[in-house]
Amino acid sequence: MPIRPFIPLRSHDVEWPTLIVLAGCYGAYGVVTWAASGLGPVVSVVLLAVILALHSSLQHEVIHGHPFGNKTGNALLVFPPIGLFVPYQRFRDTHLAHHRDSFLTDPYDDPESSYLDLLVLHRLPRSLQYLFRLNNTLFGRMLLGPVMGLSQFYYTDCKRILRREKGVIRAYIYHLLGLAMVIDWLGSFASMSVGMYILAAYLGMSILKIRTYLEHQANESAPGRTAVVNDRGPLAWLFLYNNFHSVHHLHPRLPWYRLSAFFDKHRAALLVRNEHYFYASYTEVFRRYLWCEKDSVAHPLWSFHNRTLPVDMTGDNVHETKP
């Protein structure tokens, strides 16, 4: 069966399932932060971490044109940076750059690649090389992935700000304004301490690392770089079924609540297309990779010999490093 095309939203269309989940997410956020003292520190932090992970999944939906056909209206829905760490506009820009499938997993041209240039890896101190190897296990990715990823992300963005890139500066100004709203809520209405909130935000990112851990692998074929995790459980719902990631990269505008059905309908063709980069469930992912590295830290197929200028491990100014 051929894989049919997908028709994006028109300007007057509304995706009600996404709006309902978004309303529920903000409602749960308000209740948990307000009632944190009664819930206790452990329960409130865990619940908030789950809510913040869901909010990030909803931001991802908005980036790809949901739930309205209007870009500004969509962005306003997820403007409050309740996840604290990443400005929405920077998330949007880097993620859309990631969707250039011909560059997927490239340690320089894919902003979301977890691979390093072999030459860069060998120049790192042994202790840092060990941390990158630990980060290549699922346990390490959940424990260290958020801080390692954010460190590289902020380092790159700081250099962009120093170069006075207006889009990046504007993104952080909006982010700071949004953070002021979050801080005002915490100070005026919530019973959760700032420390507990920051811990919950970090744990929320750790949960998201389960999804992103093996979404992509190095492969000569671009379609073969993107995975399918055929899971329909709580994690799949929390990730808004983006575990059917090969489907998402094929049709980025396909809404989350249609991804699993699309995979079921076109399963054979999709698995041929992505060269059977497939896992039956997140249980299988945990069993295979919780303590084991999924692959090498250095990109196994990428060669640095065509580079003519020195580069840093963040991949900043990637277009300046190519001949």
TrEMBL record:
BP GO annotations: lipid metabolic process
Protein name: Fatty acid desaturase domain-containing protein
Domain of life of the native organism: Bacteria
Lineage: Bacteria, Pseudomonadati, Pseudomonadota, Gammaproteobacteria, Chromatiales
Stretches assigned to the Fatty acid desaturase domain: 42-278
Annotated keywords: Membrane, Transmembrane, Transmembrane helix
Keyword Cell inner membrane annotated: no
A family per Pfam: FA_desaturase
CDD domains according to UniProt: DesA_FADS-like
UniProt keyword annotation of Membrane present: yes
Residues that span the membrane, as ranges: 20-53, 138-155
